[in-house]
Amino acid sequence: MNENITYIFQGTNYMDLTLYQYGRETCAPLLSCGPAAHNHYLLHYILDGKGLFTIGTDRSYSLHAGQAFLICPKSITTYTADKADPWTYIWIEFDGLKVPPFLSDAGLGLQHPIYAPTDPAGSRELESLMLQMLDSHDNSLRLLGGMYWILETLIRTSSRRKPPKTGNLQEFYAHEAQMYIERHYNQNITVAQLANWCNLDRSYFGKIFKDTVLVTPQEYIIRYRINVACDLLKDTDLSIGDISAQVGYDNQLHFSRAFKKVMGISPRDWKKRNRIPAMPDSKE
């Protein structure tokens, strides 16, 4: 028998980190999800039982309670409950501009998708935090804070975590470029402009930005613009054309293509799914 509880995050679409949905599922024997690709990250923590997680056609992982597996955007995955001891897991769908470096610090990503704790205490802490998410579905700020806490716990307790970072010049330049993008995202920003702003050679700047932020400068610009567009689609009555212009696209078709590539659906469909209805005027 399969039991599934799903909650949809109702809060603001934050740029650095946002939630989409989360839940808990007790799977029937051999219940399989996929093969499928997802638009955002999904983290599954196994509460009980066993199962098999497969990426593509050539990488499979036999997993059990106390472990977690990460699904990265656009990767083709399948996960199947064990026949004799099917798993129960908690899952969270999330994304954001800061998510790739957070996961990288935990040693997690497409090439290393399995969370294994350094000791059982780390696993129990992660389990407790993810269970708390299910009890906070009516409080968006608590949910968002809980997600930051979960990421911090992954970084601190993962057996694959990277050594703690210390401030360095590369991080300074990447941060300067990110601040420039946040101030000028609605203009025609080029990688050459960002490199000039940091007084660096264009090729060298592009390398240190990707090494630090884990996406190229152009990818970061696009994702930042799309995140701003999501807020405008959700919270305003502006047309798609007006929104595309406000986030730096002269051509609405180019905006729609970029939006669909990042979010998986068109701006119009995204708005229909996420639009916050206006509050009715109060009558005296």
- CATH fold-level label of the largest domain: Jelly Rolls
CATH architecture group name of the largest domain = Sandwich
How many distinct domains?
2
Q: Tell me what portion of residues adopts beta-strand conformation.
A: 15-25%
Mean of the pLDDT scores?
A: 88
- Number of continuous helical runs: 10
Number of beta-strand segments? 10
Helix proportion range: 40-55%
Bulk shape: globular
The secondary-structure element order is EEEEEEEEEHEHHHHHHHHH
Counting helices, strands and paired strands, the structural category is alpha+beta
Supply Rg: 20 Å
**End-to-end separation:** 52 Å
Report the CATH superfamily of the largest domain.
Regulatory protein AraC
The description of the largest β-sheet is: 6 strands, antiparallel
CATH top-level class of the largest domain: Mainly Beta
Low-confidence stretches: 279-284
Strands in their spatial order, largest beta sheet: 1-2-9-4-7-10
Give an account of the 3D structure.
- This protein has 284 residues and is of the alpha+beta class.
- It has two domains: 3-157, Jelly Rolls, CATH 2.60.120.280; 169-274, Arc Repressor Mutant, subunit A.
- The protein has helices at residues 99-105, 120-134, 140-157, 169-184, 191-197, 202-213, 217-235, 240-246, 252-263, 267-274, and strands at residues 3-8, 18-26, 32-36, 41-48, 50-55, 59-64, 68-71, 77-81, 88-95, 114-115.
- A six-stranded antiparallel beta sheet has the order 1-2-9-4-7-10, with helices on one face. Strands 3-8-5-6 form a four-stranded antiparallel beta sheet, with no helix packed on it.
- Helix 2 (120-134) packs antiparallel against helix 3, helix 4 (169-184) packs parallel to helix 7 and helix 5 (191-197) crosses helix 6.
- It is globular and about 60 Å long.
- Residues 279-284 have low confidence and may be disordered.
